[in-house]
Amino acid sequence: MTTYRDKAGRPIVVVTGMGIVSSLGQGKEDNWKKLTAGESGIREISRFATDGMKTRISGAVDFLGEAAWCGPALTEELAMRAADEAVGQSGVGAKGDFPGPLFLAVPPIEFEWPQREEVAQAVGGDTIDYDAMLRVAGEQRFQRYHERFLFGSVAAHLADRFGTKGSPISLSTACASGATAIQLGVEAIRRGDTDAALAIGTDGTVNPETLIRFSLLSALSTDNDPPQGASRPFDKRRGGFVMAEGAGALVLESLEAATARGANILGVLTGCGEKADAFHRTRSSPDGKPIIGCMREALNDAGLAPEQIDYINAHGTGTPENDKMECLGVTTVFGERAKDIPISSNKSMIGHTLSAAGAIEAVVTLMTLGAQRIPPTINHKEPDPGIPLDVVPNTARDAKMAHAVSNSFGFGGQNVSLVLSREPA
Questions:
Q1: What is the model's pTM?
Q2: What pLDDT was estimated at residue 69?
Q3: Can 315 be counted among the known catalytic residues?
Q4: Where's the Ketosynthase family 3 (KS3) domain (predicted)?
């Protein structure tokens, strides 16, 4: 007899469709092939001039050609492609009538430099303050900018395309955003608000201003040559993350609804944990309590013990601070067993996709469970004695896995951990 509720009496939430776009390519097949081969999508930036910049590399999605005229448009295009794949695989709502809400992780939206210059020149000056720019953009001649640069515009367009129900939710919790979108979808189904939800994380903001801002925070790798070797999570030589773009999308359903329509179950969203850390705008609390609490909450929510976790998809940005704190969290939560649990970072290959990272990594984690094969952490040449973890260095590995944790820890103290399972208990 099939059990449709978890140990806490809540509807079991499953995944019936997934989609992904990254610097490695579009779609699950292309990404999985390259991830397990240890290929890198990091390249020298060609989208704009980088003269005088310390960082000249990124994991930009450049294979779409002129699909977008600015960051928000590319952010939307990436989300659309990932969601098309997810909804198409699921078969639910494939005709533009998705039977549940949209939860969208999206970067903060604001005027970019080319559009600022265009508006400023149109009103007869070289510069214009931001408030005036918003007023001018609201005029008929700049109506496309006014609509495009509203924070909810990407979600509104996606809701129209896929026919999601209710007001679409746009959210931004820094680098944890994609995981937060999934968590909100899980919670909506567990509450009984809906039988299905579309969760998307997307980010297409490799642009000069964003690059400079992160550079001023000393967060980015400056190892530009060769680009493919710059992202080095958990390596002693790590020096910063590599900005990237992409999107991940998941169709979430209650197990009961998915079973009733004969859907193929790709995995289970077994647990979610979230902890805030207001210690610093970029640094983690030195005691690691929010990261530790985040993972423990996810395990408790899943009703699983630490010894039942077979793999961890690390946040693993490649910054000195993040990797050290994630190691502290993992060793505290998993104790002596921490050194034996495989933990890998796909950011070593695709870069850090910021608002999209949590969703992309959830898709990769589910593919890992489905294939029983772990993508590696590439560029791992000099182990850090302070990080005594099995980081699956450089080469993919086959393993038996039933349950996995996917970590997403964001600037400003936004932390989310997801527990994903291969099949319902």
A1: 0.93
A2: 54
A3: yes
A4: 10-422
